[in-house]
Every structure is written in structure tokens, then in C-alpha cells.
Write the C-alpha cells for this entry.
Amino acid sequence: MDSVPLTRRQQDRAARIAAELASLGLALPGTLIERRIRCGKPGCRCHADPPLLHGPYWQWTRKIGGKTVTRLVPDDQLDDYRQWLDNHRRLRALAAELEALTLAIADAGQRARRRTPAPARKNRQTST
Ligand SMILES: [Zn+2]
């Protein structure tokens, strides 16, 4: 497995992150936006004063390649979307935690290497 030695604490953290990732479930990036709209029908309640707008409708939006993509989310899928978005936030947090842990382990490995004398190395030149 890993050639850099891990402390007990680092092993525990890595195992906890892996376990949580494994049980995360579906994950979706983006956000849900609540929309209340005015329709095109003249005399509709949404044109009254004060207006009674239609909705709320829920839109899922996400930036894909610099473009904002939106999709109307049916009411019966709203709970699913909320769960998927929550899971994605958790996924990002876990990924960041795993990266920080790995960097700390890599740094500790480099410090340990600097303390131990390096084996004699021949200067190699590539001949052409
Ligand atoms: Zn209307």
C-alpha cells in the first residue's frame, strides 16, 4: 500500500473519510432556486395589485462549462434533489479533508527523508 508511514491518527482519519465516502449515496452539484412567476394571461391574479404570483417553482441550476444550466424540478423530486445537493456538499468537504490529510502525510514523509542521510548517489549524465 502506501510507502509513507501513517500515524495511528492519520490511519483513523483516512478510514473514516473512506467509510463516509462509501456510504454517501448519490451526489449532485448546483443549487435549488425558488421561483415565483408572472404568466402571460392578462387579467390573471399574477397581474393584480398586489400581484399573486404563480409558484413557488423550484429550479435546479448549475454552471457547466461557464454556462448556467437550469432545470425545473417537480415537487415530488424536490426531497431527492435536496439530498443529492447535501451529499455533494459533503463530498466536496470530504475530498478537501482527504487532500489536506494526504498533503500532511506527504510533507511528513519529506521531512523524515531529509533527516535521514541520503544514500550516496552517482551523478548520472545522459549521453547523447
Ligand atoms: Zn398568471
